[in-house]
Amino acid sequence: MSSKGKKRVVLPTRPAPPTVEQILEDVRGAPPNDPVFTALTPEGRSKPDCSQGPGTISARLEQLYQQSRAYVAMNERLQQAGDTLRQKFEDLRQADERLEQDVSRVTSATS
């Protein structure tokens, strides 16, 4: 196709991002079952249960925090274990090479 047949497409300009006030107004006007508010709640519950008081919520948040810390610690231990395994594998590979050299020297000396 020749360049005469191609038409240049002019894209519309991007709209301006919303202001903080517009965002807050949108959040305040959203219904309680909006996915933004329910995405992180356990299944079967549309919103966090505040009826048992702030102590229960803070206990749940503390539990989640401790789970997150345990996950990060376990991930670090697994990475260290992987590094250790790689080093031990390399050590075994080198030992195998030395053993094969020693075996070949012994067999050539006895022949």
Question: What this model shows, in words?
Answer:
This protein has helices at 20-29, 35-38, 54-110. Helices cover 64% and strands 0% of the residues. With 111 residues, the chain is mostly helical. It is built from three helices and no strands. The N and C termini lie far apart (77 Å).
Topology, please?
Layout: H1 20-29, H2 35-38, H3 54-110
Characteristic terms for this protein:
111 residues, mainly alpha, 0% strand, 64% helix, elongated
How many beta strands in the DSSP annotation? 0
**SSE class:** mainly alpha
Instruction: Describe the largest sheet.
Output: none
H/I helix tally: 3
- The whole-angstrom Rg is 32 Å
User: Which word captures the global form?
Assistant: elongated
Query: End-to-end distance, in Å?
Result: 77 Å
Strand content: under 5%
Mean pLDDT: 84
Q: Which stretches of 5+ consecutive residues score pLDDT under 50?
A: none
Helix content: 55-70%
Which sequence of SSEs, written as H and E, runs from N to C?
HHH
InterPro entries: UPF0449
Pfam families: UPF0449
Family: Belongs to the UPF0449 family.
